[in-house]
Structure formats: structure tokens, C-alpha cells
Amino acid sequence: VSLLAEAYGVHKNDLENHPDDLGRDVKLLLERGREVTALDYVNAQLARQRFRRQLQQLFQDVDVLVTPTSSLTAFPIGVTKVTLAAQEEDARTAATRFTRCFNATGNPALSLCCGFDDQGLPIGLQIVGKWWDEATVLQVGYAYEHATEWHQRRPSV
Predict the structure, then answer these.
(1) Long-range contact list for 32-40, CB < 8 A, 24+ apart?
(2) What's the whole-number mean pLDDT along residues 21-41?
């Protein structure tokens, strides 16, 4: 919610004065941000702060988090809906589910290829670090790429 409101605040002028310069999907997201109430925004900020504190505590015990980058592989341009676990979802929401939280908290994150699906599309591995520790995230990514060969392959489609 807060990311939508913040994106709207940053791009309000473009949305109002140059809407044809924006893609349909971006316009829809910005318009959703316009609808966020002050109460929703404040509650989202409080949730963001709680999650940031939890991450700070976690990073006292670990150097990085390793997660999937996305719950799905790439989909064709123009696709707006995908089906996951027999439920239809917004494609952008589904694709960014595991990355949005770190965008909101400001933690550095890196996505690397860790394999390919049965259609030859890349599967992403996300490495997340503590605030201001991009160096560790990049070092772990570098070590992973030198231990594997996934980064040398290209999608088959």
C-alpha cells in the first residue's frame, strides 16, 4: 500500500500531464496509489517499521537471506493474469511477491539465475543483506556464480 502511494506521489505530474508516456500497467498501478487513504498509508508505515526491526534482529544472526526471486518464471509481455495454486492473480503482483518487501525496507538484494524450468525459462535466486551491506550481498552472489554454471546458460525460448 505504501509503495503504491509513494509511487503515485513521485509520478503524479507524469500521470496527470503525460499519461500517454506511461504504459497501461504503470498507469493502473499509479492510479491505485491515488486511492490509498491516509489511514492505510500510516498503517502500512507502521507495518514496514515492524518488519524492518524484525529484519534487523534476524541480521544479527545471519549474513544474508536466500529466497526465491519469484513464485513463477517469466511470462510473455502483455500478460496481466497468471494462475498459481489454481488461483488467478495479477501477474505483476505474483511476480514481485518475494521482492516487494525488501524494496519497502531498503535492504539490498540481488537476483541470480539458479536453474531453468521445463520450458527453458530462468529461475531466480534472491540474496538479501542487511542495510548498507551491499558488499556482502555481492560477494555471496559472486561466490555462487563461481560455484555454479547457471549464469553461463541462456533461456531456450
Answers:
(1) 32/4, 32/8, 33/4, 33/5, 33/6, 33/7, 33/8, 33/9, 34/8, 36/1, 36/2, 36/4, 36/5, 36/8, 40/1, 40/5
(2) 87
